């Protein structure tokens, strides 16, 4: 596995990790996997099909991740629930490890990338922001998409999901001891990208190719 070319990004929802992962992938010319989509896809299907979540996880295909409904908060909650099942996590391991082992290197974002999926990643970032800043971002995003919600509800649902993700026994969401902590509470996407890039450059990670 080309661990020296992997950028692992973890953190809670609306911390800015997804946007950051996409920008870093584009900057370094690396493929990107949003691993939250895997759990969302399993949770979404489990609520519709009468099949055990672990079985759905074992049969997951890359094309299953294209479903636009996976972007909703309901899919996020469903994903968080199945993510606590050890067999689901085990059955999604190969998919993620295979993606991370591409010769080009890769950027993966999620909750356990630096701790479980790619413990040897060259770069590990843990992106956080205050619950208020995250809820405010999420609220604005939902309103822009036309969702009918109120800020206290967004904050409460986020707290519930954070608790489930960080208190579960199987691969709880936490920073790897060697991760660079990036608090984006007072940063916009450009500032977060600049801070991450400065750290990555200090670590000697460069774009590959000509
Ligand atoms: O990052 P996200 O909101 O799309 O993730 C959806 C849920 O999936 C999240 O609440 C926890 C779970 N998840 C996980 O347990 N491990 C990952 N690597 C990514 C997501």
Description:
The chain is an alpha/beta fold. It has a single domain (3-202), classed as P-loop containing nucleotide triphosphate hydrolases (Rossmann fold). Helices cover 50% and strands 11% of the residues. It has nine helices and five strands, in the order βαβααααβαβααβα. A five-stranded parallel beta sheet has the order 2-3-1-4-5, sandwiched between helices. Helix 2 crosses helix 4 (73-82). It starts with 5 loop residues before the first strand and ends in an 8-residue tail after the last helix. The mean pLDDT is 94. 2'-deoxycytidine-5'-monophosphate is lined by residues 13, 35-36, 39-40, 76, 79-80, 83, 110-112, 161, 165. 2'-deoxycytidine-5'-monophosphate binds at residues 13, 35-36, 39-40, 76, 79-80, 83, 110-112, 161, 165.
Ligand names: 2'-deoxycytidine-5'-monophosphate
CATH architecture name: 3-Layer(aba) Sandwich
Rounded to an integer in angstroms, the radius of gyration calculated over CA atoms is 17 Å
Structural class, judged by helices and strands? Answer: alpha/beta
The DSSP helix count reads 9
- Order the strands across the largest sheet as they lie in space: 2-3-1-4-5
What is the CATH class? Answer: Alpha Beta
Low-confidence stretches: none
Q: Write the H/E string, N to C.
A: EHEHHHHEHEHHEH
Distance between the termini: 22 Å
- Mean of pLDDT: 94
Q: Categorize the overall geometry.
A: globular
Helix % is 40-55%
Q: How many separate domains make up the residues?
A: 1
What fraction of the residues are assigned to beta strands by DSSP? 5-15%
User: What's the total number of strands?
Assistant: 5
């Amino acid at each position: 596995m080309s661990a020296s070319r992997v950028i692992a990004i973890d953190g809670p929802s609306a911390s800015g990790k997804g946007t950051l992962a996409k920008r870093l992938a584009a900057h370094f010319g690396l493929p990107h996997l949003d691993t939250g989509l895997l759990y969302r896809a399993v949770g979404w299907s489990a609520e519709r099909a009468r099949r055990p979540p672990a079985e759905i996880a074992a049969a997951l295909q890359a094309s299953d991740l294209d479903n636009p409904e996976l972007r909703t908060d309901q899919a996020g909650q469903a994903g968080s629930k199945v993510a606590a099942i050890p067999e689901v996590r085990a059955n999604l391991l190969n998919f993620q490890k295979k993606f991370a082992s591409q010769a080009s290197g890769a950027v993966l974002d999620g909750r356990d990338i630096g701790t479980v999926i790619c413990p040897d990643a060259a770069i590990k970032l843990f992106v956080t922001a205050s619950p208020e800043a995250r809820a405010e971002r999420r609220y604005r995003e939902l309103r822009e998409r036309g969702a009918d919600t109120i800020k206290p509800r967004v904050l409460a649902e986020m707290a519930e999901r954070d608790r489930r993700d960080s208190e579960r026994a199987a691969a709880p969401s936490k920073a790897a001891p060697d991760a660079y902590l990036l608090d984006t509470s007072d940063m916009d996407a450009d500032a977060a990208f600049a801070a991450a890039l400065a750290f990555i450059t200090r670590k000697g990670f460069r774009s590959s190719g000509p």
